Amino acid sequence: MPRKPKSNLSHSSTRARTAKVARSQESEEQTQTQKTQARRALDAERHASQRASDTFTQTETRWALDAERHASQRASETYTQTPTRQTLDAERHAFQRASETFTQTQARQTLDAERHASQRAAETVEQTQTRRVLDAERHGQLIAAETDEDSQRRRLLNAERQAERRPRGSVGHESMYIAEGSTIFLFEITDN
User: 179 near 156, Cβ under 8 Å?
Assistant: First the structure.
């Protein structure tokens, strides 16, 4: 004997049950996402208050632990994860730099200079050579990718930096920069 076909009622009930299950799963995912975001916000506030109350020694200890943790994470990541992390880090740093005040920028630059100086002081000859090669490659890539305006700005900054490093011959020593097109002219005037 042939089976009796299911009625539309049972068919719609099956669809309704499937839709209900799908909605409940979606709401669970949304709830989980909201909980995660709330937890992260609370964690960020808690960490900020802890960092604000840290002593200098506690801050240094936290930095050292963070550096070890980040180094182990970087060591365990794959070649495909590395560029993704670097891109995310660059975006995060750019956002942070864009939102900081002039005073915060100066403080960050001072801390960065001190950190870099201490790192350079502690590195071996081989590490120094490797760093210089990597820096040269990175600078070459940046120079190759810059626009004409970026190039002109970089050249002007480099000329100013070089002039500051140059010993002053006399009290009446002056430097003047004139940018014309992609060429920067440096005029030095002395009272000799």
Answer: yes
Does this model's pTM top 0.70? My answer is no
Q: Residue 56 domain-assigned?
A: no
Indicate if 119 and 140 belong to the same structural domain.
yes
What is the total count of domains within the chain? 2
pLDDT in tens, 76-94: 999 999 999 999 999 999 9
Chain centroid, CA 152 distance in Å: 25
Residue 111's domain comprises 96-145
> Please, is 44 exposed, middle or buried when counting C-beta atoms within 10 Å of its C-beta (0-12, 13-18, 19+)?
exposed
Tens digits of residue pLDDT in 2-41: 776 665 555 567 777 787 777 777 777 788 888 888 888 8
- Residue 153: how many other CB atoms lie within 10 Å: 14
Question: Which residue(s) pair with 180 in the sheet?
Answer: 183
100 with 141, same domain: the answer is yes
Flag whether 15 is in a domain.
no
Q: Encoding tokens for residue 128?
A: 């120094």
Q: Which amino acid is at 134?
A: L
- The Cα–Cα gap between 191 and 173 comes to 7
